[in-house]
From TrEMBL:
<dbReference type="InterPro" id="IPR052356">
    <property type="entry name" value="Thiol_S-MT"/>
</dbReference>
<dbReference type="Pfam" id="PF13489">
    <property type="entry name" value="Methyltransf_23"/>
</dbReference>
<dbReference type="InterPro" id="IPR029063">
    <property type="entry name" value="SAM-dependent_MTases_sf"/>
</dbReference>
<protein>
    <recommendedName>
        <fullName>S-adenosyl-L-methionine-dependent methyltransferase</fullName>
    </recommendedName>
</protein>
Length: 290
């Protein structure tokens, strides 16, 4: 790629950064002048979540028209009991095939995005099969919410425990960049996956400058970070080693991830992973662990 084309590409994320700063300021105005509750500004975590939800509600749809790599096809193959981490306002739901899915649980901590999520679940044809949970993907938030919903533990639909693995599929789309403890979160998700279960991944990550990436793009990631990207973008980090966290989470039978746009400031890894340990039925009918 010519250098003259490359520079605008590196600058493109700055538009999103400016938009997030605008929504942060507008959220503060809403709190002070409309709600007249300035003390709410002191809760910085809530303020940042709320302003990101505002940004996403206004732009999430437009930012979801084209998704990287084979994501649409990977999501359309999801089946059985599915866990979707951070579904936002459900912009990805139209990519799933509801006929293949028994039930889908969406772990979304931003309460302001839930009305859109429920609306999009209905629009995509999930009906009563969609369960929106008000929680994050980190185990300390997710496990109690799953238990409360009945899908986990003795009183649930499956009766499994977090350590046995209960989900056939877990989807992480543009979310692991923003979870507060990515390593622990990914480990927790690995446990929740049934042996042989599939994880669909579409995440932006640290630029792979040592291999397929570019040093300049890696430097630009650092600059955006210093300009406040994680602060204004609801905790989203540009420099995450998500592939390493996924690889170290446990034993995988298949680990198929490929970079999309590795030379960009926001390169993605997209693909599917299959958890090891599925029961294999031998010719004689005996079952063994792979
Ligand atoms: C960039 S949006 C992506 C939404 C959706 N996955 C998509 O691709 O259309 C990131 C989402 O992750 C959610 N999120 C933030 N922190 C989270 C956490 N700790 N656990 C789960 N989701 C989280 C945000 O509220 C937001 O809805």
């Amino acid at each position: 790629m010519a250098f003259a084309d490359y520079i605008p590409m590196l600058l493109r994320p700055s538009i999103l950064l400016f938009m997030s700063i605008k929504h942060f300021i507008l959220t503060m105005f809403e709190i002070v002048f409309q709600e007249r509750q300035p003390s709410k500004l002191l809760n910085l975590t809530d303020l940042r979540f709320r302003s990101f939800a505002r940004l996403w509600a206004a732009n999430g749809e437009a930012m979801s028209v084209e998704m990287p790599g084979p994501l649409n096809s990977l999501l359309s193959q999801c089946s059985g009991l599915v866990l979707d981490i951070g579904p936002g306002s459900g912009e990805m739901l139209s990519r799933f095939n509801p006929k293949r899915i028994k039930a889908i649980y969406g772990a979304e901590p931003a309460v302001d995005l839930h009305p859109g999520l429920v609306r999009n679940a209905t629009k995509a044809g999930f009906g009563g099969k969609y369960h929106a949970l008000l929680c994050g993907g980190e185990p300390e938030s997710l496990i109690p919410a799953l238990a409360k919903s009945g899908v986990l533990g003795g009183n649930g639909a499956t009766g499994g425990t977090a350590d046995d693995g209960i989900f056939d599929e877990i989807c992480c789309v543009r979310v692991l960049c923003g979870v507060p403890t990515p390593r622990e979160t990914v480990k927790g998700l690995y446990k929740l996956l049934k042996p042989g279960g599939r994880m669909v991944v579409c995440e932006h990550v640290v630029n792979p400058w040592r291999t397929e990436g570019r040093v300049l793009a890696r430097v630009v990631q650092l600059v955006y970070t210093l300009l406040g990207w994680p602060f204004f973008m609801g905790g989203c980090e540009l420099q995450r080693h998500t592939e390493v966290f996924l690889r170290e989470a446990g034993e995988w039978e298949e680990f198929k991830l490929a970079y999309v746009d590795p030379q960009h400031a926001v390169p993605f890894i997209v693909g599917e992973l299959k958890k090891a340990g599925a029961l294999k039925v031998s010719e004689g009918g005996a079952r063994s662990l792979r």
